[in-house]
């Protein structure tokens, strides 16, 4: 009799792993790239924030001035 029902725990685990929490659903909705650009006399700045469904984010900044491209380090982390 156990042989016939041995698949039940495996099916239950698969079902629970396939369920998405409200947090997972929200992450999928907000995932994407958000960009802000600023221009002024002699400069251009582009900020980009990328949110991933996994809960990680990356922020990049590009700065272009009369002196050329300015180095900026990206930042990253996790969000909830």
Rg over CA atoms: 22 Å
Major β-sheet annotation? 5 strands, antiparallel
Mean pLDDT, all residues = 86
Write the element-wise H/E pattern from the N-terminal end onward.
HHHEEEEE
Residue windows where pLDDT falls under 50 for at least 5 positions: none
- Beta strand %: 35-45%
Number of helices: 3
Q: What is the helical fraction, as a range of percent?
A: 25-40%
The helix/strand class is: alpha+beta
Distance between the termini: 45 Å
Report the principal-axis shape. Answer: rod-shaped
Brief sketch in words of this structure:
The chain is an alpha+beta fold and 80 residues long.
Written description of the protein model:
Strand 1 (32-40) and strand 2 form a beta hairpin. This protein has 80 residues and is α+β, with helices and mostly antiparallel strands. The radius of gyration is 22 Å and the shape is rod-shaped. The longest helix is centred in the first third of the chain and has 12 residues, at 7-18. The protein contains 3 helices and 5 strands, in the order H-H-H-E-E-E-E-E. The mean pLDDT is 86. The chain has helices at residues 2-5, 7-18, 22-30; strands at residues 32-40, 43-51, 56-65, 68-70, 75-78. Strands 1, 2, 3, 4 and 5 form a 5-stranded antiparallel β-sheet that branches.
Keywords:
alpha+beta; 80 residues; 3 helices; 31% helix
Q: Helices and strands in order, then pairings?
A:
Elements lengths: L1 H4 L1 H12 L3 H9 L1 E9 L2 E9 L4 E10 L2 E3 L4 E4 L2
Antiparallel strand pairs: 1-2, 2-3, 3-4, 3-5
């Amino acid at each position: 009799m156990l042989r016939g029902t041995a698949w039940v725990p495996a099916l239950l685990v698969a079902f629970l792993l396939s369920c998405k929490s409200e947090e997972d659903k929200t992450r999928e909705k907000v995932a994407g790239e958000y960009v802000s650009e600023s221009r002024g006399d002699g400069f251009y700045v582009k900020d980009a924030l990328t949110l991933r469904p996994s809960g990680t984010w990356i922020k990049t900044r590009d700065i272009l001035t009369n002196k050329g491209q300015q180095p900026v380090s990206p930042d990253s982390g996790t969000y909830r």
